[in-house]
Design goal:
340 residues; alpha/beta; 7-stranded parallel β-sheet; 15 helices; binds 5'-deoxyadenosine
């Protein structure tokens, strides 16, 4: 039996979360997945929410040790879409009948306060879409201005709540060492819907820290939770280390990622939880569909035009996920995730 939400996420719940996280027996895992599926249905229903993702720039000023678009990556052509190009994508997303655009990019200083504010205002005026910003760590002034311009949501993954591990893989940017967790709390106070999440199986990640990450999802009362496996990128320091290391910590597998996803659903019953592309990169052909029976309720359609889509190379296999037009995507849980 899966304990109640209070028993899992109250003050004494951490060892219980840790137990469920580590238990790789088929029976325990099946019970966890079906509990997450029930909670998903009870709290957010059977509608699969589609989102339109546009990767507007792969320029980045940061050096995150795992990421393929980090500043010092050589040999990757860089691009930045114009406002007209983004506006055309927004119109296409509206045409497809989706109601949200996610603007994602590296931490690109050329996407500055007035520019992004103007882009958000234009998208809102021309399409009325809900706008999610996923542009990295930005200043309080920028966040407030973009909220005033009409941005609705922010997606900023904290990746790990283990401070030492976090510091090891995230050299500070121009804002200095900042706490993403504090930033998420401020974003919420300014009226954004706030999404965050973690990578599963970062080299050096402990089971205990991952259990604390999941507890933090509940404490932050996240509106969106994105959980994906760490996918080693050969052109990054952590990707090279991952191949060499025989790490005793959390492995970046489908099963462990599925258990984190399911626990995220129990932690945040009403949150929107995407079936992430990284899962598809790990398990081509079924990674995302399987997530829909483990707590996920959001499907991201990558509508970044080519050739830019393949240049947004954060991890290998990402560009291979087929560009789903709304008409090709599963429109219901019934088609994608057979009921048990
Ligand atoms: N494996 C998995 N996810 C990654 N991301 C970046 N690099 C990787 C990787 N190697 C994800 C991180 C980051 C977002 C930009 O993409 O979660 O926040």
């Amino acid at each position: 039996m899966i304990p109640t939400r209070g028993a899992l996420f109250g003050p004494a719940g951490l060892p219980r979360v840790l137990g469920l996280l580590r238990d790789d027996s088929a029976a325990a895992q099946a019970a966890l997945f079906s509990a997450a599926d029930r909670v998903r249905r009870a709290h957010v229903g059977d509608a699969l929410l589609p989102r339109g993702l546009v990767e507007i720039s792969n320029h980045c000023r940061r050096q995150c040790a795992y990421c393929g678009i980090r500043a010092s990556r050589r040999g990757l052509p860089r691009y930045r879409m114009t406002h007209d190009e983004v506006a055309r994508c927004a119109a296409a997303i509206r045409e497809l009948g989706l109601d949200t655009i996610v603007l994602q990019s590296g931490e690109d200083p050329a996407l500055d306060l007035p520019g992004v504010a103007a882009l958000v205002r234009r998208i809102k005026a021309e399409t009325g879409l809900a706008v999610t910003l996923s542009l990295g760590e930005r200043s309080d002034d920028e966040w407030r201005a973009w909220r005033a311009a009409g941005a609705d949501r922010v997606l900023l993954k904290f990746e790990t709540s283990d401070d030492l591990l976090y510091e090891r893989i995230h050299p500070p940017g121009p804002l200095g060492p900042i706490s993403r967790i504090d930033m998420l709390r401020r974003l919420k106070s300014w009226g954004y819907e706030v999404g965050s999440g973690v990578m599963v199986g970062i080299p050096g990640q402990s089971w205990e820290s991952l259990a604390r990450d999941i507890h933090l999802f509940a404490q932050l009362a996240l509106d969106m939770v994105a959980v994906g496996p760490f996918v080693p990128h050969p052109d990054t320091p952590l990707g090279q280390l991952a191949v060499a290391a025989n790490d005793a910590g959390v492995p970046p597998t489908e099963d462990v990622t599925g258990r984190v996803l399911a626990l995220a659903r129990l932690a945040c019953p009403s949150a929107n939880i995407p079936a992430t592309t990284a899962l598809e990169a790990l398990c081509p052909g079924r990674g995302r569909a399987d997530a829909l029976s483990r707590g996920a309720n959001v499907w991201m359609h990558n509508l970044t035009p080519s050739p830019w889509r393949s240049m947004y190379d954060v991890y290998p296999g990402k560009g291979l996920v087929p560009p789903t037009a709304a008409s090709q995507a599963p429109e219901s849980f019934a088609r994608c995730a057979p009921r048990r």
